[in-house]
Amino acid sequence: MVMMIGYVSADCPFVSRDEQKRILEETGCNVIFYGTFSKDGTFFLQFVARQKPGIRIAVVQMDCIVSSWRHLRDIILQVQNKGCTLVSVKEPWINTSAGRGTLMLEMLGGLEELEKRFIRQRMSTGRHRAMSAGCRMGRPTKLTSQQFEAVAQARAKGHTLREIAEEHNVSISMISRLLKKMPRKS
Fold first, then answer.
1. Nearest alpha-carbon partner for 52 in 87, 4, 15, 100
2. In this structure, what DSSP letter does residue 55 have?
3. What is the C-alpha to C-alpha distance for residues 182 and 52, in angstroms, rounded to an integer?
4. Which of 23, 39, 60, 95 has the fewest CB atoms lying closer than 10 Å?
5. Higher pLDDT, 120 or 63
6. Which residues contact 69 (CB under 8 A, 6 or more apart)?
7. Is residue 21 pLDDT above 90, yes or no?
8. Which residues pair with 4 in a beta bridge?
9. Using an 8 Å Cβ cutoff, are 44 and 7 in contact?
10. In what order do the strands lie in the sheet with 31-35?
11. How far apart are CA 60 and CA 24, in angstroms?
12. Average of pLDDT values for 17-39?
């Protein structure tokens, strides 16, 4: 019989610690381990590294150990490299001991990549449209064009960068960058 160890994320934002423990005990876990939630699954991977090959690791749901499909894929690879299997009680399609479970995870990962590509494409299109409509991207400028000119004149009169920066309520480095970008008058 395969030993099944339950992993309870003590600070899972979705399922209480006691509820996770109850569900894993009902599932038949011989041992319950209490860990910590991290977005990238770091603590869960440390737990996996300490396991012996052949162990079946159960979690109540994947978002108790990781917050993205990319990190989930990394976790599954680590579990498989260790010779263990991973199962989610509330997500039956996540079961690395069955070929269908692994296939489903790969398909979901592919869909996630496709969705990210669509989002990037929509954002890029939106940015181009906004720029062609005259919208300026990035942070608003701290100084007006008249203030830019005043900075150049103050520097030409011999004022220090510190004096100019204090007068316009900006940093010295900003004044320095601004002066480097301004065309020099001969």
1. 4
2. P
3. 65
4. 39
5. 120
6. 108, 109, 112
7. yes
8. 56
9. yes
10. 31-35, 4-9, 56-59, 85-88
11. 7
12. 89
How far is it between the farthest Cα atoms of the chain?
87
* Residue 97: DSSP 8-state: T
- Taking the model in full, what pTM does it have? 0.58
Query: Across residues 49-67, what is the average pLDDT?
Result: 88
Residue-wise pLDDT tens digits, 122-164: 899 989 999 999 988 888 888 888 988 899 899 999 999 999 9
- The one-letter amino acid at 59: V
Q: What is the DSSP string of 118-154?
A: HHHHHHHHHHHHHHHTTPPPSSPPSS-HHHHHHHHHH
C-alpha angle 14/80/19, rounded to 5°? Answer: 20
Alpha-carbon distance values, 58 to 15, 55, 169 (Å): 15, 10, 58
Instruction: Spell out a b/e string for 65-77, using b for 16 or more CB atoms within 10 Å of the CB, else e.
Output: bbbebebbbebbe
What are the sequence ranges of the domains in the chain? 4-106, 145-179
Partners of 58 in beta bridges: 6, 87
**22 pLDDT more than 60:** yes
3-state secondary structure of 96: coil
For the 4-106 domain, the top CATH level (class) is alpha beta
Lowest mean pLDDT among 19-23, 56-60, 109-113: 109-113
Amino acid at 161: L
